[in-house]
Design goal:
It is found in: Membrane. By secondary structure, this protein is an all-alpha fold. 74% of the residues lie in helices and 0% in strands. Helix 1 runs antiparallel to helix 6 and helix 4 packs antiparallel against helix 5.
C-alpha cells in the first residue's frame, strides 16, 4: 500500500511542480496521451471493475443503479471541474464564472480523486485476489493529464505560487487519503462488503463517463483517425496485459 500511496501522490505533485517552472505547451501530445489513457481506463472498467460489481448483482440488483449514479455524479462534478478530469483545459484570464473561483475546481477534482483512491483497497474485500497494480496504472494515466490541465488553468487565474502549490498538494493527496481511509475503515469492519461494492459501482460509473468523454472530445468531428484507432488499440491491449501480469 505504501508504494501505491507514493505513486499516487508524486505522479500528481511532481507534475504540478514541473509545470510551475515550465508551463505545458504540448497540447497535441497531451491529446494522444489522453486517448491512450482513456482507452486503458475504459478497457479496465469493462474487464475488471464491472465484472466485480456484477458478480454480486444477482444478490444485490441495486448495484447497477449505483453504476448509473456514478455516471451522472461525474457529470455533475464536471460542472464545477470544467472537464479537467479528462484533460480538458479552459484558460480564460478574464473569467467571471466558475474559473474565477478555483476552489470549486479543487473540491470537485478532489472528490473524484478521493473516490478513485478507495478502489485500491479492493483486493481485501471483493472477488479478484490479484494485485491492484493494473488499476493503479489506470488511475495514474488518468491523473497526470488531469494534473496538467489543472495546473495550466490555475496558472492562468492565480498569482500566488504558494496558494497554487497548496492546491496541487491537496489534489495530489486526495487519492492517497481515499486509499488510507477506506483501508482503515475495512480493517475496523466499519466499511462492509456491501458498502464497498456500492463505492466500487459508483466509481465504475465515474470511469465510464470520463473514458467515453475522452473519446468524444478527442474526435468532435467524428472522423476516423488511424492514429487515434491505433493508440486506442494499444491502450486496450496494455490494459489486458496489465490485468493478467500485474
Amino acid at each position: 500500500m505504501i508504494v501505491d500511496i507514493i505513486v499516487l501522490f508524486f505522479s500528481v505533485f511532481l507534475t504540478g511542480l514541473i509545470l510551475l517552472s515550465k508551463p505545458f505547451k504540448g497540447i497535441a501530445n497531451l491529446k494522444s496521451f489522453l486517448i491512450f489513457g482513456g482507452s486503458y481506463l475504459f478497457s479496465l472498467t469493462i474487464i475488471h471493475l464491472l465484472p466485480e460489481v456484477f458478480h454480486h448483482a444477482e444478490e444485490d440488483v441495486t448495484l447497477g443503479y449505483f453504476v448509473l449514479l456514478g455516471f451522472f455524479l461525474q457529470l455533475a462534478l464536471e460542472h464545477f471541474s470544467q472537464g479537467i478530469e479528462h484533460g480538458h483545459v479552459h484558460i480564460r484570464k478574464d473569467s467571471s464564472g466558475i474559473l474565477s473561483r478555483p476552489i470549486f475546481l479543487l473540491i470537485s477534482l478532489s472528490i473524484h480523486a478521493f473516490l478513485e483512491g478507495t478502489l485500491l483497497a479492493h483486493p481485501n474485500i471483493v472477488v479478484h485476489e490479484h494485485s491492484s497494480k493494473a488499476l493503479l496504472v489506470g488511475i495514474v494515466l488518468h491523473k497526470i493529464p488531469a494534473a496538467i490541465a489543472l495546473c495550466s488553468v490555475l496558472l492562468s487565474v492565480m498569482e500566488s505560487r504558494v496558494k497554487l502549490i497548496t492546491y496541487i498538494f491537496i489534489f495530489a493527496a486526495a487519492s492517497p487519503l481515499g486509499l488510507l481511509l477506506s483501508d482503515y475503515l475495512i480493517d475496523i469492519n466499519f466499511l462492509s462488503s456491501r458498502l464497498f461494492l456500492i463505492l466500487f459501482a459508483i466509481v465504475s460509473g465515474n470511469f465510464l463517463h470520463i473514458s467515453t468523454t475522452i473519446f468524444y472530445e478527442t474526435s468532435p468531428d467524428h472522423h476516423l483517425s488511424v492514429k487515434k484507432l491505433l493508440i486506442s488499440i494499444l491502450g486496450a491491449a496494455i490494459a489486458l496485459l496489465a490485468e493478467f501480469l500485474l
